[in-house]
Specification:
With 480 residues, the protein is an alpha/beta fold. It has helices at residues 14-24, 38-42, 50-54, 59-67, 81-92, 99-112, 123-134, 141-147, 164-171, 186-189, 196-207, 214-230, 250-261, 268-289, 305-311, 326-337, 355-363, 386-399, 419-437, 445-464, 470-476; strands at 29-31, 150-154, 178-180, 235-240, 292-297, 299-300, 319-320, 344-349, 374-376. Residues 470-480 have low confidence and may be disordered.
Length: 480
């Protein structure tokens, strides 16, 4: 019997142990999709207690706490932080089998040196120990990034954002990690939503124009793309409840946009026509800029309308959708490819029923001069667990080339969540280790170990074209 989450946690054979400890363990991290706040990185945020670092904004934990019958006051309400921490400890005891159980204990081990399970009984002592550490400079936001050996962080940013703190980070030579913005224009694609008109007005303000036509809208978007590019952005992200595809003329799209701007009711047909044109416009511009286009497909959001009114979005009330996507996804990609305007694209599916769709459709749009141009993104959201990761990588290896896989992202708002890369790497090494042990691949450690290191770090660095400066590497390693 193994000890609880020991050095060989999730490594079930000798080959997996060797691959993880000799090849994967010390590889740096590029977190190319997350929701960290650049301001907190610049200001080197110091957390007042573990609840602030752990539970604020973490809808994964909130969902589990609600499932455990915890009152909302102890989740997103006005209860004090200590009581919220105790409620999480109570919930964690019931989380066996959920990835939160492993994520939480990896964070306790790697950041705070606390081994053994967190329980209701030891929670007060754990609270005291962690909070005494969080007051030290070694536990500031930047220190935790450095401790995790993170070289690049790509935040998620609205096109109307000033990117003030990205600029300040770039100008501050003492900040070791590169923090780059990601263009996230979801509010611009959600025609007919309550946020659309205010967002268009805000876009006009930041670009210095009064937007009254579709042409002016696209010109303003293009200006913001160039601004983001100048600030180091190399990626855009689109959240799609489903993939739209209804072709229409520019004149019709302009008329639909005009009616939406006037507050008229817009049909679902018109919305899909507009969203198709919007994604096509963005895709062409991203190709020109050399950006990666990330498509996060399939969440069904804000399902509990009463709780949405109480606590707002991104609070744990989203679920998997089961919409069909194969036809529309293939047509959308083809509409860009036929004009030779298809950018590099990362496709994420929230519903695992779509894994083979993504894996096979992406194969139709690869190109000879860019290995892995279209990527099947890592197991995402509800699939971000052992079973989900194994399934995603198994499908990818079955219908594509896992050797070009760009690996894991945190998709997180927490500075402690970099242990999820360790969780992923252990599962990755165990999968490859099984293949070695079964004689399915040769025990050539240079080849297999090299593939592991590529998936952990090298592939994504090359795919995005990140340049890690010598100074920043030295800073990450503690140099001056």
């Amino acid at each position: 019997m193994k000890q609880f989450m020991d050095d060989d946690f999730l490594l079930e054979n000798d080959s997996a142990v060797r691959l993880y400890h000799e090849y994967a363990k010390t590889m740096p991290i590029i977190d190319y999709h997350c929701h960290l706040d650049a301001k907190e990185i610049f200001e080197n945020k110091q957390f007042k207690n573990i609840t602030e670092a752990w539970l604020y904004g973490d809808h994964y934990k909130w969902l589990a706490m609600r499932s455990n019958g915890i009152d909302e006051r102890l989740i997103t309400g006005d209860a004090n932080d200590y009581d919220k921490f105790l409620a999480w400890a109570q919930t964690l005891e019931k989380c066996i089998g959920n990835p939160l159980y492993h994520w939480t204990h990896l964070e306790l081990q790697r950041f705070f040196g606390i081994y053994g399970p967190l329980t209701v009984q030891n929670a007060p002592a754990v609270w005291e120990k962690i909070n005494s550490l969080l007051g030290l400079k070694e536990y500031s936001a930047r220190a935790m990034i450095s401790k995790s050996n993170v070289k690049v962080i790509c935040t998620t940013d609205d096109p109307v954002d000033s990117l003030e703190y990205h600029r300040r980070i770039r100008e501050d030579a003492t900040i070791a990690v590169q923090v780059l913005p990601t263009f996230r224009p979801d509010k611009g694609q959600e025609l007919g939503s309550s946020d659309f008109i205010p967002w268009v007005e805000q876009l006009g303000k930041v670009t210095g124009c009064h937007i009254t036509t579709y042409g002016e809208f696209l010109a303003a978007l293009e200006r913001r793309m160039q601004f983001f590019h100048d600030m180091g952005c190399r990626s855009a992200d689109h959240g799609l409840q489903r993939v739209p595809y209804l072709e229409s003329s520019q004149d019709i799209i302009a008329e639909i946009f005009q009616r939406a701007l006037q507050g008229a009711n817009i049909s679902e047909h018109d919305v899909e026509c507009y969203q198709t044109a919007f994604l096509q416009f963005c895709g062409r511009k991203y190709a020109q800029l050399g950006w990666i286009m990330q498509l996060h497909i399939g969440p069904m959001r804000n399902n509990n309308s009463r709780m949405f009114r109480c606590v707002g979005p991104n609070s744990g009330f989203d679920a998997m959708n089961d919409c069909s996507m194969a036809y529309s996804l293939a047509k959308l990609l083809d509409s860009l490819e036929r004009d030779k305007c298809l950018p590099k694209i990362i496709l994420y599916a929230i519903n695992p029923k779509d894994y083979y769709v993504l894996g096979t459709v992406m194969g139709n749009f690869q190109t000879g001069n860019v290995p892995g141009k279209i990527q099947f993104g890592t197991a995402w959201w509800f699939n971000d667990n052992k079973k989900g990761m194994i399934e995603q990588m198994s499908v990818l290896s079955s219908v594509g080339l896992i050797s070009h896989f760009i690996g894991m992202v945190t998709d997180s708002r927490s500075f402690l969540s970099y242990t999820r890369h360790e969780y992923f790497r252990r599962i990755l090494c165990n999968l490859f280790g099984e293949w070695v042990e079964n004689g399915e691949v040769p025990a050539d450690w240079d080849i297999i170990g090299g593939i592991i290191q590529d998936i952990c770090f090298n592939n994504v660095k090359k795919y995005f074209g990140f340049q890690i400066t010598k100074m920043k590497q030295e800073n990450l390693l503690g140099g001056k």
